[in-house]
Amino acid sequence: MTESGGQTTYSRVSQLETSPYYRWPDPNIASTSEFPPGFRMIAYSNQEGAGTGGETGANLFVECCDYVNGGEESCANYEGNPLVFPTNTCDFLGIAFAMPTCWDETKGIGTDNPFNHVAYTTDGTVNGPCPAGYDTRLPQIQLFLRINNYQGGTYMLSDGGEVFHVDFMNGWQENKLQEVIDSCQATG
Q1: 8-18 pLDDT, tens per residue?
Q2: Spatial separation of the C-alpha atoms in residues 160 and 38, rounded to whole Å
Q3: Which of 30, 62, 172, 188 has the most crowded CB, counting CB atoms within 10 A?
Q4: Low-confidence residues of the chain, pLDDT below 50?
Q5: Which DSSP helix (H) or strand (E) runs through 19?
Q6: Residue 14: how many CA atoms within 13 Å on its side-chain side?
Q7: Nearest-CA neighbor of 120 among 36, 44, 13?
Q8: Distance between CA 171 and CA 37 in Å, rounded?
Q9: Is residue 121 a contact partner of residue 47, using CB atoms and an 8 Å limit?
Q10: How much is the pLDDT for 27?
Q11: Quick count: other Cβ atoms within 10 Å of Cβ 52?
C-alpha cells in the first residue's frame, strides 16, 4: 500500500511462493485417516486452539529472514494472532499456518459449514489429544508462504484485516494419501 496526493494505491505481492506441508502424529500416538472425498475446511488464526502448539508455540508464525554466512538463515520471529507484517526489509518473509487435525464425522465434510466439524488438538500440537467428540484424526496441513525480497513498509491482507486464514478442499485421489500416511516413517 502506498499513499500519494491523498490517493491510496494497493499492489498485489508478486514475489510470492507457497508450499503446503502435510504432518500427522506418530502412529504409536494416534491413528490418522486421509481426508474423505469432498472434505473441506477453513481455519482462522484467531479460532480456538490456533494460538497454542505448532512448531514454535503457535499455529501461526511469521519470520523475517536474511541469508548470512554462505546461505544460513538469520530470522526474527513473530508468533500468534494477529498477523504481523514487519516494517523492516529482509531477504524473505515467511508466514506459516497450521490447520486443525481433529474431525467430528457427525458434523459432515464441511459442505454446509467449513468450520465447526474440525478442531485443533487440546494443546494445539500435531501429537496432542483431540477434544471430546472430535474422534477422527486427519493430517495437519501447514501452509507456508514466502515473500522474496521483502521490502517492509505497509502490507495488509486483501480483506484489510489482521486475521490470517487458509481454505482447504480435498483433491487427493481416494486412498492415495492414506497410502502415504501408512508407508511414511515417523521423523520426529
Answers
A1: 877 788 888 99
A2: 30
A3: 62
A4: none
A5: strand 16-23
A6: 2
A7: 44
A8: 8
A9: no
A10: 85
A11: 17
Alpha-carbon distance of 42 to 38, in angstroms, equals 14
What are the strands of the beta sheet with 136-137, ordered from one edge?
118-119, 102-103, 136-137
Cell of 33: 485417516
CA distances, 73 to each of 66, 67, 80, 143 (Å): 6, 5, 21, 20
What letter represents residue 55's amino acid? E
| Radius of gyration of the chain from its Cα atoms, rounded to whole angstroms | 18
Tell me the pLDDT tens digit for each residue of 67-99: 999 889 999 998 888 888 999 999 999 999 999
Give the whole-angstrom CA distance, residue 121 versus residue 39: 19
Grid cell for residue 96: 506459516
What single letter denotes the amino acid at residue 73? E
User: How is residue 42 written as a grid cell?
Assistant: 477453513
